[in-house]
Structure formats: C-alpha cells, structure tokens
C-alpha cells in the first residue's frame, strides 16, 4: 500500500516539475523505509508512514529546503554574471508561491543592522525579472544583494525577489510574459482596470501579445505574490528593475530622483495595470522603475555600483518610514 502511495505521489511530483527538489531533500529514501516497514514493529511502521506523508510537514519542509540549490543551478546557467556559489550565498528561499509552471518564487528578507535609532527603518521592496526576457534585471539584483551588508544599505529593511517571473526567465527562449502569456506588468488592479486595460491593449498596442494584460487583474500567481508582499511587508518604497530603455521612471508622492549613475529621470508614461501606476499613483507608495540600458549586457561593475550608491542616497534623503496607522489594504483577485 505504501509503495502504491509513493508511486502516485512521485507521479504527481513529476507532473509538477519538483521531483528533483524532493529527491534532493532525501524523500526517495522513504521508499526503502516503507518496504522495510512490512517487517518492522507497529511503532516503526507508523513512523515510516509519517515520513511519506507528502501533503504534510515533511513535504512542506522538503519544498522549502531543496529548491534553492536546484533553482540556483538553473539561474546561474542562465546568467553569465551569476555564479552558482553567489546564488546559493544569497540566502533565497521559496516564498510559498509557485509560478504557473510550478517554480517557486524565491525571496529573502534582510533586516537592518541595529543602529540605535529610535525611528523604524525604511522598508524597501526590491524586484527583478518581472519580464523574463530582461536578463540584466535579475542579474543586477543578485549583484546588489552582495552589497546589502555594507554601508547605507544596512540601515534599511529589505524584501528582495530577483526573479518574479521564473517561467518567462527560465524557458528555452526567455519571454516577457509568464507561462500564461500575460504581461505581469499590466496585471495589477489599477482603478478601472476592466475597462482601461483591455481597451489600451486593443487600441494602443494592436493586441500585441507581449503586452496582454490578462483577463482579470491579479489573474496570475506571480502578480498576486507581488500584491500580497506589498500588503505583508508594507514597503516605504518599491524598486522594480527592468531593461532596456536606459532611464529612470518614477511614480509616487515624494521627490523623484534626478539620476542613478548614468540613468536619468525620464518619465515613460502611465499604463493601465502597471506596477508603477498601482503602487505609486493608486497606493501612494513611491516606486522607482530602473530601466537598464541593455537587456542582455550588464552595466560595468563601476556603473552597477554607482546606480546602487545613488539609489541608497536618494532613499536616505527622500523616503521616510510611513506611520504604522496607515497600512496598505490587500487587494484580493476577483
């Protein structure tokens, strides 16, 4: 009976694309344990049965422990600038949300170093890879994560997700959209989304499939994760990294930055369903969209550092911790 359960469970895991993660966690050893339990004591058999409860705590722990290594192998193979060791040292863990194809959205919170200040630290949500074909976006986020234990970055409380759209990023030919063909950066619930987003897509983009907003706001697990993380983490500022326009865009209630490195503030417009529109204009949470100049070629080390340092300085001077009495209301997908 236990062997049959394991066979069915393994088939399910293969279909979800996470068998490798489970094997890495050692669950395959449960097959031998189950077979041996036929001759074992009742207490031992009960213990073995608990070990193969794929829907219980053992399975949950395996999915939280194993994917970092597995996905880091995939990430480092995709990004020439990212070594396997650097990815592993980033400390990313599964957020609990899976993409359309079952990849975990990897995430890390990095609290500030205690400074003795009486004011709460500024909370920064840093996102990369919303568009899967903009490879430099996750690459530079991984680079910046290596510098978060230095200088002014230690003053802030960070929530970081380098690859929000793992399906688009890891497919053989990376795509802007997720696995459902939805542009995640047009899927956020801005006011009048049901009227404005489809109309914009049809009339302004000519039904461009790369900019399809989806059939409903927050229809995608990846955009729902971002929305949920905004509600949970309550950032004081959002940094979303894209490419390849080579500018800074900004939405929100504070003074916009003039430049980060060579990237100059150049408004690119407001779009129905965009994260900039949703966070900066609707939620009143300042958001900087960093548009790197190339989607495939990384900025130089010096320029990556300059963008980072200028960003930290701007946050220090312009973003303050919001009052606790003004929480962000979570928007539920309909």
Itemize the secondary structure elements and their pairings.
Layout: H1 2-16, H2 19-24, H3 29-36, H4 42-51, H5 57-65, H6 67-78, H7 84-89, E1 93-98, E2 104-110, E3 123-128, H8 136-145, E4 157-161, H9 166-170, H10 193-203, H11 221-233, E5 237-242, E6 247-251, E7 259-260, E8 263-265, H12 275-282, E9 287-291, H13 301-318
Parallel strand pairs: 3-4, 3-5, 5-9, 6-8
Antiparallel strand pairs: 1-2, 2-4, 6-9, 7-8
Describe this entry's structure for a reader.
By secondary structure, the protein is of the alpha/beta class. It folds into two domains: 2-65, no CATH class; 80-318, Zn peptidases (Aminopeptidase). The protein is built from 13 helices and nine strands. A nine-stranded mixed sheet has the order 1-2-4-3-5-9-6-8-7. α8 links the parallel β3 and β4 (157-161). α3 (29-36) runs antiparallel to α4. One of its GO terms (molecular function) is zinc ion binding. Residues 1-35 form the signal peptide. Keywords: Carboxypeptidase, Hydrolase, Metalloprotease, Protease, Signal, Zinc. InterPro entries: Peptidase_M14.
CATH superfamily (homologous) name of the largest domain? Zn peptidases
CATH class categorisation of the largest domain: Alpha Beta
Order of helices and strands: HHHHHHHEEEHEHHHEEEEHEH
**Number of helical stretches of at least 4 residues:** 13
How many whole angstroms does the radius of gyration measure?
22 Å
Average pLDDT rating: 81
**Number of spatially distinct domains:** 2
**Largest sheet data:** 9 strands, mixed
- Approximate shape: globular
Beta-strand segment tally = 9
């Amino acid at each position: 009976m236990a062997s049959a359960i394991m066979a069915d469970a393994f088939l399910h895991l293969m279909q979800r694309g996470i068998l490798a993660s489970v094997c890495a966690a050692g669950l395959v050893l449960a097959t031998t344990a189950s077979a041996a339990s036929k001759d074992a004591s009742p207490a031992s058999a009960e213990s073995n049965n608990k070990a193969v409860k794929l829907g219980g705590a053992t399975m949950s722990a395996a999915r939280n422990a194993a994917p970092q290594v597995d996905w880091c192998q995939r990430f480092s193979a995709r990004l020439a600038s990212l070594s396997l060791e650097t990815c592993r040292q980033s400390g990313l863990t599964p957020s609990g949300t899976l993409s359309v194809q079952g990849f975990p959205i990897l995430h890390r919170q990095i609290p500030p170093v205690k400074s003795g200040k009486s004011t709460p630290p500024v909370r920064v949500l840093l996102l990369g890879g919303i568009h899967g074909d903009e490879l430099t976006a996750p690459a530079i986020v991984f680079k910046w994560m290596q510098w978060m234990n230095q200088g002014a970055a230690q003053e802030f409380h960070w929530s970081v997700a380098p690859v929000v759209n793992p399906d688009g990023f890891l497919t053989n030919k990376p795509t802007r959209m997720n696995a459902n063909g939805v542009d995640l950066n047009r899927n956020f619930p801005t006011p009048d989304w049901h009227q404005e987003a489809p109309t914009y897509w049809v009339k302004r983009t000519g039904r461009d499939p790369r900019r399809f907003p989806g059939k409903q706001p927050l229809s995608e697990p990846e955009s729902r994760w971002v929305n949920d993380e905004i509600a949970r983490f309550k950032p004081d500022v959002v940094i979303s990294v894209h490419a390849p326009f080579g500018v800074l865009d900004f939405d929100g209630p504070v003074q916009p930055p003039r430049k980060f490195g060579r990237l100059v503030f150049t408004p690119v417009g407001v779009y129905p369903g965009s994260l900039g529109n949703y966070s900066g204009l609707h939620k009143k949470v300042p958001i900087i969209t960093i548009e790197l100049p190339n989607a495939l070629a990384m900025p130089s080390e010096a320029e990556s550092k300059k963008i980072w340092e200028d960003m930290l300085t701007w946050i220090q001077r312009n973003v303050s911790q919001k009052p606790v009495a003004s929480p962000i209301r979570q928007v539920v997908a309909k």
